[in-house]
Design a protein that fits this description.
7 strands; Rossmann fold; 16% strand; 8 helices; seven-stranded parallel sheet; alpha/beta; globular; single chain
Length: 255
């Protein structure tokens, strides 16, 4: 059983990997020996993430990619393959938050701004990875970052919740359809976590007072809480374990 989680020679792709949960997962993967491809839209954050991960001594490279743009995904995946030669695991993590508008005031443009990245972007990313894994043979792992907003009411955030529920559905379908190709698929159902996207809300005094009392661990999640899970999933040591919704929320959902 020694070396069970050694990812030397493994290539992982993490979208939205330049900050937040994505960077936490990328750290775990690189620390375990994986080469890591990062996709993000912010060039400065991309560079900072590459510098951060360099300490682990594996190959790391970032590309600017808007995952909601099909051509950008196609080009970025081709560039990733040209540089690394393969992709063994793909973490569709890139996402944006809702506008915070009341449901009755949400415009179609507001709705589509969120679903374009969170749902269309996840679909395009996972499809590119799946096509490569099927064509190459040898299996692989697909992972999507979902949210507890799919399992409890998300007022003023319906577009975000719907996009994450859709992502979970994509993952479940892929787990069944791609099983014969030895491709496993999972969604990570993330709870309230300190990220650039969520932190402003988490530290709103009224919100924190209302929600923290429902957090059994009495803390918000940290991006590094997702590092070990990413390694477990990428290593695919639980080969019969697929199609799961893995909740990482400090027991918030069941309290």
């Amino acid at each position: 059983m020694s070396g069970l989680f050694d990812l030397t020679g493994h290539v992982a792709l993490v979208t939205g990997g330049n900050s937040g949960i994505g960077l936490g997962m990328a750290r775990g993967l690189a620390q375990s020996g994986a080469d890591v491809a990062l996709w993000g839209t912010n060039a400065e954050r991309n560079d900072a993430a590459v510098e951060d991960l360099a300490q682990y001594g594996t190959r790391v490279r970032a590309w600017r990619c808007d995952v909601g743009d099909e051509d950008a995904v196609t080009a970025s995946f081709a560039a990733t393959l040209e540089h690394f030669g393969r992709v063994d695991s793909c973490f569709a993590n890139a996402g944006v938050g809702g506008s915070g508008a009341a449901f009755v005031d949400t415009t179609l443009d507001d709705w589509r701004r969120v679903t374009r990245v969170n749902l269309d972007g996840a679909f395009l990313t996972l499809r590119a990875a799946a096509r490569h894994m099927v064509s190459r043979g040898g299996g692989g792992v697909l992972v999507g970052t979902s949210s507890v907003s799919t399992v409890h009411g998300a007022p003023r955030n319906e577009a975000y919740a719907a996009s994450k529920a859709g992502l979970t559905a994509i993952i479940e379908g892929a787990a069944v359809e791609l099983a014969r190709h030895r491709i496993n698929a999972h969604s990570i159902v993330a709870g309230w976590t300190e990220t650039p996207l969520a932190s402003p809300r988490l530290h709103d005094e009224r919100f924190e007072a209302a929600v923290m009392k429902r957090m059994p661990q009495r803390r918000w999640g940290d991006p590094d809480d997702f590092a070990r899970l990413a390694v477990y999933l990428a290593a695919n040591v639980g080969g019969f374990h697929t199609g799961d919704e893995i909740v990482v929320d400090g027991a918030y959902s069941i309290f």
